[in-house]
Amino acid sequence: MNASLIKELRDISGAGLMDCKKALEASDGNIDKAIDYLREKGISKAAKKEGRIAAEGLSTVLIDGNNAAVVEVNCETDFVAKNEKFVNLVNMIAKLIASNDVKTLDEAYLLKTDEGTLKDTLINMTATIGEKISFRRFARITKTDSQNFGSYIHMGGKISVLTLLEGASEEVAKDVSMHSAAMRPSYIRKEDVPSAEVEKEMTILKEQAINEGKPADIAEKMVNGRINKYYKEICLEEQDFVKDSNLTVSEFVKNNGGSIVDMVRFEVGEGIEKKEENFVEEVMSQING
Question: Could you tell me where the DSSP H helices lie in the chain?
Fold first, then answer.
């Protein structure tokens, strides 16, 4: 297939290289027919939405026996996030991930669906709904028979948490998930915090103490006490348990005969730079225009 023809089709449609190649092959090299082919497949229409910001959407947890999945799928508006087709898509993806041993998004995109692959389904959904639909991330966890899953979904899927405990019970694991949804821990235990992050925090804490007028040696000792407070803010095991502040989360789980193995918390749109809408400027520009 002529490379310049493929490039021309890509420039016109915004579709991917392989999609353009396939369209041209199906159209005997006729670029007009190839454009129609892409439009019929919903690929051209979907590709034009790739530059948009999709920061709304849903997350969910699906537990299937000893396997569980947490997924986040994004769209552009909260309105679409409530759309039944979108909700069904999110649930379908969660089931697909839980049922298949995939580790990356690229592997997940190749999973088989009724429309071909998961990537095909996402492209078709983007074309059908009219907004950019993005499968952003997932986590898949497998447990042993001695372990317990506990999940919690908050605000209809704005926050989803999956906790894995050794021992204890599903109820205890769910309590930890509810705690995590509320308290937003960044790490499970102190050992998980990157050393560079700890060193940066200790430098800041030492500067704070020196700025308070403390001698350097006293400031050094103060840092050791304050870093523990830092751990209590960001580490799940060190946090005060929301249902009983006399216990840390680690102590609560231990008192129930268990220990924390893993925890995944997805909050929809976290870390995505959302587009700021200025409706006053938009209206004024239309009036003045």
Answer: 3-13, 17-26, 31-41, 43-47, 78-81, 84-99, 105-109, 118-129, 170-183, 195-211, 216-234, 249-255, 279-288
